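subagent[fold] <- orchestrator: predict structure for attached chain, return C-alpha coordinates only, no commentary.
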Amino acid sequence: MRSVDPRLPVADLLAHLDLQAEDPRFRGVRVFGGLEPGSAAGDAILSWLDRRGLVFDLVAGPASLPAWVRALEAFPDLTVVLEHLGSPEDAGQDGRARWAGAMRKAAAATGWTCKFSGLGMLLTEITADAVRPWLELAVDAWGWERLVFGSNMPMDAITVSHEGLLGTVRELVASTAGAADAHRFFYDNARRAYGLPVADISEAVIPRR
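subagent[fold] -> orchestrator:
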Protein backbone atom coordinates (compact mmCIF):
# COMPACT_ATOMS: atom_id res chain seq x y z
CA MET A 1 0.00 0.00 0.00
CA ARG A 2 1.08 3.58 -0.71
CA SER A 3 0.51 6.74 1.27
CA VAL A 4 0.03 10.49 0.84
CA ASP A 5 0.48 13.56 3.01
CA PRO A 6 -2.98 14.80 4.11
CA ARG A 7 -1.51 18.24 4.83
CA LEU A 8 -0.99 18.89 1.12
CA PRO A 9 -3.41 21.14 -0.73
CA VAL A 10 -6.13 18.94 -2.23
CA ALA A 11 -4.97 19.59 -5.82
CA ASP A 12 -1.43 18.51 -4.96
CA LEU A 13 -2.69 15.51 -3.00
CA LEU A 14 -4.73 14.29 -5.99
CA ALA A 15 -1.82 14.86 -8.35
CA HIS A 16 0.35 12.73 -6.05
CA LEU A 17 -2.26 9.97 -6.11
CA ASP A 18 -2.48 10.10 -9.91
CA LEU A 19 1.30 9.73 -10.13
CA GLN A 20 1.36 6.73 -7.79
CA ALA A 21 -1.51 5.06 -9.64
CA GLU A 22 0.68 4.77 -12.74
CA ASP A 23 2.32 1.78 -11.05
CA PRO A 24 0.36 -1.35 -12.06
CA ARG A 25 0.95 -2.79 -8.58
CA PHE A 26 -0.89 0.12 -6.94
CA ARG A 27 -3.86 -1.16 -4.90
CA GLY A 28 -4.81 1.74 -2.67
CA VAL A 29 -3.78 4.10 0.10
CA ARG A 30 -2.95 3.95 3.79
CA VAL A 31 -2.43 7.24 5.64
CA PHE A 32 -0.56 6.77 8.91
CA GLY A 33 -1.52 9.99 10.65
CA GLY A 34 -3.16 13.37 10.28
CA LEU A 35 -6.14 12.25 8.23
CA GLU A 36 -9.42 13.27 9.83
CA PRO A 37 -12.84 11.82 8.93
CA GLY A 38 -14.95 14.38 7.11
CA SER A 39 -11.98 16.62 6.28
CA ALA A 40 -11.37 18.01 2.80
CA ALA A 41 -8.32 15.78 2.42
CA GLY A 42 -10.22 12.73 3.66
CA ASP A 43 -13.16 13.26 1.33
CA ALA A 44 -10.81 13.87 -1.62
CA ILE A 45 -8.87 10.66 -0.99
CA LEU A 46 -11.98 8.55 -0.46
CA SER A 47 -13.68 9.93 -3.58
CA TRP A 48 -10.55 9.34 -5.66
CA LEU A 49 -10.25 5.73 -4.45
CA ASP A 50 -13.97 5.06 -4.84
CA ARG A 51 -14.06 6.22 -8.47
CA ARG A 52 -11.20 3.87 -9.32
CA GLY A 53 -12.34 0.83 -7.37
CA LEU A 54 -9.25 0.92 -5.15
CA VAL A 55 -8.73 0.17 -1.46
CA PHE A 56 -8.70 2.42 1.59
CA ASP A 57 -6.54 0.96 4.37
CA LEU A 58 -8.00 2.71 7.41
CA VAL A 59 -5.73 3.54 10.33
CA ALA A 60 -8.07 4.23 13.25
CA GLY A 61 -8.34 3.40 16.94
CA PRO A 62 -11.26 2.88 19.30
CA ALA A 63 -11.79 6.61 19.81
CA SER A 64 -11.91 7.52 16.11
CA LEU A 65 -13.66 4.45 14.72
CA PRO A 66 -17.23 5.78 15.21
CA ALA A 67 -16.44 8.95 13.25
CA TRP A 68 -14.88 6.94 10.44
CA VAL A 69 -17.91 4.66 10.29
CA ARG A 70 -20.10 7.74 9.78
CA ALA A 71 -17.75 9.34 7.23
CA LEU A 72 -17.48 6.18 5.16
CA GLU A 73 -21.25 5.77 4.93
CA ALA A 74 -21.00 8.18 1.99
CA PHE A 75 -18.85 5.62 0.14
CA PRO A 76 -20.78 2.34 0.43
CA ASP A 77 -18.98 0.71 -2.51
CA LEU A 78 -15.46 1.56 -1.34
CA THR A 79 -13.35 -1.38 -0.18
CA VAL A 80 -12.11 -0.61 3.34
CA VAL A 81 -9.53 -2.65 5.26
CA LEU A 82 -9.16 -1.72 8.92
CA GLU A 83 -5.47 -1.81 9.81
CA HIS A 84 -3.84 -3.43 12.83
CA LEU A 85 -6.97 -4.78 14.51
CA GLY A 86 -8.36 -1.29 14.97
CA SER A 87 -5.21 -0.10 16.78
CA PRO A 88 -5.98 -1.05 20.40
CA GLU A 89 -4.49 1.50 22.77
CA ASP A 90 -3.33 -0.81 25.53
CA ALA A 91 -3.47 -4.46 26.49
CA GLY A 92 -4.96 -3.96 29.95
CA GLN A 93 -8.47 -5.04 30.85
CA ASP A 94 -10.02 -1.59 30.41
CA GLY A 95 -8.18 -0.87 27.18
CA ARG A 96 -9.17 -4.20 25.71
CA ALA A 97 -12.80 -3.62 26.70
CA ARG A 98 -12.86 -0.23 24.93
CA TRP A 99 -11.27 -1.78 21.87
CA ALA A 100 -13.68 -4.74 21.86
CA GLY A 101 -16.73 -2.48 22.01
CA ALA A 102 -15.48 -0.30 19.16
CA MET A 103 -14.61 -3.32 17.04
CA ARG A 104 -18.00 -4.97 17.47
CA LYS A 105 -19.83 -1.78 16.56
CA ALA A 106 -17.67 -1.13 13.49
CA ALA A 107 -18.01 -4.71 12.28
CA ALA A 108 -21.79 -4.70 12.73
CA ALA A 109 -22.23 -1.36 10.97
CA THR A 110 -19.99 -1.95 7.95
CA GLY A 111 -18.85 -4.42 5.35
CA TRP A 112 -15.17 -3.71 6.02
CA THR A 113 -12.40 -6.26 6.24
CA CYS A 114 -10.15 -6.21 9.32
CA LYS A 115 -6.44 -6.97 9.26
CA PHE A 116 -5.16 -9.17 12.08
CA SER A 117 -1.84 -7.42 12.52
CA GLY A 118 0.13 -5.09 14.74
CA LEU A 119 0.03 -7.03 18.01
CA GLY A 120 3.81 -6.99 18.12
CA MET A 121 3.57 -3.25 18.79
CA LEU A 122 1.12 -3.79 21.67
CA LEU A 123 1.97 -6.99 23.52
CA THR A 124 5.15 -7.73 25.44
CA GLU A 125 5.21 -11.27 24.07
CA ILE A 126 3.63 -13.11 21.18
CA THR A 127 2.53 -16.46 22.57
CA ALA A 128 -0.61 -18.50 22.05
CA ASP A 129 -1.96 -17.45 25.46
CA ALA A 130 -1.25 -13.77 24.84
CA VAL A 131 -2.70 -13.66 21.33
CA ARG A 132 -5.71 -15.95 21.85
CA PRO A 133 -8.14 -13.40 23.38
CA TRP A 134 -7.43 -10.90 20.60
CA LEU A 135 -8.04 -13.49 17.90
CA GLU A 136 -11.19 -14.80 19.58
CA LEU A 137 -12.72 -11.33 19.80
CA ALA A 138 -11.71 -10.49 16.24
CA VAL A 139 -13.32 -13.65 14.91
CA ASP A 140 -16.43 -13.06 17.01
CA ALA A 141 -16.78 -9.52 15.62
CA TRP A 142 -15.73 -9.93 11.99
CA GLY A 143 -16.01 -13.65 11.27
CA TRP A 144 -13.45 -15.58 9.27
CA GLU A 145 -14.97 -14.11 6.10
CA ARG A 146 -13.77 -10.57 6.92
CA LEU A 147 -10.53 -11.15 8.80
CA VAL A 148 -7.12 -11.30 7.11
CA PHE A 149 -3.68 -12.09 8.49
CA GLY A 150 -0.95 -9.45 8.29
CA SER A 151 2.60 -9.63 9.61
CA ASN A 152 3.34 -5.88 10.06
CA MET A 153 7.04 -6.49 9.64
CA PRO A 154 9.45 -4.91 10.40
CA MET A 155 7.53 -3.07 13.15
CA ASP A 156 6.37 -6.25 14.91
CA ALA A 157 10.01 -7.34 15.03
CA ILE A 158 10.39 -5.28 18.22
CA THR A 159 8.63 -8.21 19.91
CA VAL A 160 8.72 -11.24 17.63
CA SER A 161 10.28 -12.62 14.47
CA HIS A 162 8.14 -13.22 11.39
CA GLU A 163 8.59 -16.96 11.88
CA GLY A 164 7.55 -16.71 15.52
CA LEU A 165 4.49 -14.62 14.76
CA LEU A 166 3.35 -16.86 11.94
CA GLY A 167 3.93 -19.97 14.01
CA THR A 168 1.87 -18.65 16.92
CA VAL A 169 -1.02 -17.50 14.76
CA ARG A 170 -0.99 -20.73 12.74
CA GLU A 171 -1.21 -22.73 15.96
CA LEU A 172 -4.22 -20.74 17.15
CA VAL A 173 -6.00 -20.83 13.80
CA ALA A 174 -5.44 -24.58 13.50
CA SER A 175 -7.10 -25.09 16.89
CA THR A 176 -10.16 -22.96 16.16
CA ALA A 177 -10.84 -22.92 12.41
CA GLY A 178 -11.52 -25.50 9.75
CA ALA A 179 -9.46 -25.70 6.58
CA ALA A 180 -11.80 -23.44 4.58
CA ASP A 181 -11.76 -20.67 7.20
CA ALA A 182 -7.98 -20.91 7.59
CA HIS A 183 -7.62 -20.51 3.84
CA ARG A 184 -9.85 -17.45 3.94
CA PHE A 185 -7.85 -15.89 6.76
CA PHE A 186 -4.40 -16.49 5.30
CA TYR A 187 -5.19 -16.11 1.60
CA ASP A 188 -8.67 -15.67 0.11
CA ASN A 189 -9.75 -12.55 2.00
CA ALA A 190 -6.59 -10.62 1.14
CA ARG A 191 -6.79 -11.66 -2.49
CA ARG A 192 -10.40 -10.52 -2.69
CA ALA A 193 -9.91 -7.22 -0.89
CA TYR A 194 -6.85 -6.15 -2.84
CA GLY A 195 -7.74 -7.65 -6.21
CA LEU A 196 -4.67 -9.89 -6.23
CA PRO A 197 -4.13 -12.62 -8.82
CA VAL A 198 -4.59 -16.25 -7.90
CA ALA A 199 -1.30 -17.79 -6.80
CA ASP A 200 -0.02 -20.99 -5.27
CA ILE A 201 0.37 -20.80 -1.51
CA SER A 202 2.46 -23.08 0.63
CA GLU A 203 0.85 -25.70 2.82
CA ALA A 204 3.34 -24.51 5.44
CA VAL A 205 1.35 -21.26 5.74
CA ILE A 206 -2.21 -22.52 5.90
CA PRO A 207 -2.72 -24.93 8.81
CA ARG A 208 -4.73 -28.10 8.48
CA ARG A 209 -6.58 -29.97 11.17
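orchestrator: received. Logging for downstream: The chain has a mean pLDDT of 91. DSSP finds seven helices and five strands in the chain.
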